[in-house]
Amino acid sequence: MRGMKSVAVAGVLACMIGAARSDELVGTIDAINTTRNTISVGDKIFAVSPQNTVGPRIGDLRRGDRVKIFYASGRVRAKTRFNAIRIEKQGG
Question: Of 41, 51, 82, 89, whose CA is between 20 and 30 Å from 28?
Answer without folding.
Answer: 51
